[in-house]
Amino acid sequence: MSNLAELIAAAGPDLAAHANPRPGPDRFVSSGDESRAYVLEAVYEAYLLHYGEPRAFVGMDADLRLLAGDALYAQALARLAEVGDLEAVAELADLISLCAWAESAERRDLVEALWEASARRLLGGAGRGARAEVAERLARDRA
Hints:
Elements: H1 3-10, H2 13-16, H3 34-51, H4 62-82, H5 86-104, H6 111-124, H7 130-142
């Protein structure tokens, strides 16, 4: 089962009416840590519910999209906290807040780089993460 299909199944009956029967492929795939890949996929879907076009859910008004996105953020972070993966919780908290900042500051040019930095750190164990990525890019902008 794909992470998106699992995410739809875990979303519960309130969102079942909005499930997309063909959500497309997962964005994040891991050969080692499927739990982190699932959580990263859930956080990405939450981001899309807030700011873009979600893949797993359709036909929601803006208020329901916001609430559903918040629910997915909470579900993802809780899943990591249950297993004690505090490093991943911290990285995703940075990613969520930095993406929200980038959207509000009209710095959408940073968003993709933030996702890639977090994915490298969480799924490959390499990389500095979203916080270091945005700091480096902002420093370059000031230079």
